[in-house]
Amino acid sequence: MNVQLPKFADPSPIHDIKWIPIKFFNDQRGWLAELFRNDLIDPNFHPQMAYVSMTKPGVVRGPHEHVDQADYFCFIGPSTFRVYLWDARKDSPTFGAKEVKEAGEAGPYALIVPAGVVHAYKNVGDKDGWVFNGANRLYAGWLKQDPVDEIRHEKDPNTPYKVE
């Protein structure tokens, strides 16, 4: 398969991070937004499962990272999130790089976060916000029989991964 990746609106200082703009199609009935297209994403990042979470204003999720799993987040609103990314992959050409970007209602994006990149997000808006994730691995493996692939940093007071 010849994957024709979209032109990304915003480059990232972190290798393999992809910010994909999400376009809304509006008409008299409301709107539609394509969250995932098989033909626009590298097959290594194709979702194996999906979930939607709601995060209250001021709440932070993460920081954490995965050993094998990549995440495919979609921030479309109805709030704004500040997304934090840290490249913790020792073999990456951007090891140690950090990126902070806002995404959501005013700037809807899909975001590919490869394994080994520490990530967190905070709802910086004034209303509940939704986030879609299409992970490329099953949470806890087939029928939830395996260990969870997460390295959690949020409870470590000495973590270098701080969310302001």
From TrEMBL:
UniProt-listed GO biological process terms: dTDP-rhamnose biosynthetic process; polysaccharide biosynthetic process
Site entry: Participates in a stacking interaction with the thymidine ring of dTDP-4-oxo-6-deoxyglucose: 139
A GO term from the CC aspect: cytosol
InterPro entries cross-referenced by the UniProt entry: RmlC-like, RmlC-like_jellyroll, RmlC_Cupin_sf
Protein name (record): dTDP-4-dehydrorhamnose 3,5-epimerase
Species per Swiss-Prot/TrEMBL record: Fimbriiglobus ruber
PANTHER family to which the protein is assigned, alphabetical: DTDP-6-DEOXY-D-GLUCOSE-3,5 EPIMERASE (PTHR21047), THYMIDINE DIPHOSPHO-4-KETO-RHAMNOSE 3,5-EPIMERASE (PTHR21047:SF2)
Entries under SUPFAM superfamilies matching the protein: RmlC-like cupins
Gene Ontology molecular function: dTDP-4-dehydrorhamnose 3,5-epimerase activity
Catalytic reactions on record: dTDP-4-dehydro-6-deoxy-alpha-D-glucose = dTDP-4-dehydro-beta-L-rhamnose
One Pfam family linked to the record: dTDP_sugar_isom
Documented EC number(s): 5.1.3.13
